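Here is a tokenized protein:
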Amino acid sequence: MYQWVKKYGDEALKDKRGHKKEEAKLTPEEQMKRQMKKLERDNERLRAENLFLKKLEEIERRQK
């Protein structure tokens, strides 16, 4: 372990899973991919919301 830390540094031992890069350190391509993923998530959420509202409207219409 000592040799490994000496060779790669103790920074290499840190668990970086789940951490995102800062926006300033991203390449333009990475920024575009991140923006596209965000837009896709937003789009999917809005589709689900619209489907829910349509079903709710149908239920309310049936009750009248």
Summary: The longest helix spans residues 28-63. Residues 23 and 34 are 10 Å apart (CA to CA).
